[in-house]
Amino acid sequence: MDASSKNQRTGEYVPPRLQKPFRLAIVVVAAMTAYAALASPYLRFLSVPPMDKALHVSASFVLALLLRWSLGLPLVIVMLLTAAIGGGVELLQFVIPHRNPGLDDFLADVAGAVIAGVLLSLIRIRRQTRT
């Protein structure tokens, strides 16, 4: 891995051939999330506890990874942005019929972002110790 292939902002290697697919994945995940939020009467099985919390954690986890790998943003920004998106989704649920916003859902989103942040930090530490 040469210095030219590293992300200048983060110092981590993200192959350029993977950045575009990750950006496309962000669009796909956003579209699926919007569908799930707007079609809630048809997707009631997703709102059964604890399935809904697991879905929040996993969606935020995946979103954080995609943001990091596609845009190369600093890890703190990725975690804050992921939590802000989760909070924004919860706020939007005030105006969407058949949806109930909740602090517990927001905390599940934050947990997913934190888990992704810890995983990405461990990956970075492992790569640094191998070089």
Would you write up a description of this structure?
There is one protein chain. This protein has 131 residues and is mostly helical. The protein has a domain at 49-131. Helices cover 69% and strands 0% of the residues. α3 (75-92) packs antiparallel against α4. The N and C termini lie close together (10 Å). The model is unreliable at 1-5 (pLDDT under 50).
Number of strands: 0
In the predicted model, the low-confidence regions spanning at least 5 consecutive residues are: 1-5
| Radius of gyration over all CA atoms, rounded | 16 Å
Average pLDDT score: 79
Could you say which structural class the secondary elements and strand pairing correspond to? mainly alpha
SSE order and pairing:
Blueprint lengths: L15 H23 L12 H21 L3 H18 L10 H28 L1
Helix pairs in contact: 1-2, 2-3, 2-4, 3-4
Features of this protein?
single chain, 131 residues, mainly alpha, 4 helices, 0% strand, elongated, disordered N terminus
Question: What is the gist of this entry?
Answer:
By secondary structure, the protein is an all-alpha fold. The protein has four helices and no strands. Mean pLDDT is 79; it is low at 1-5.
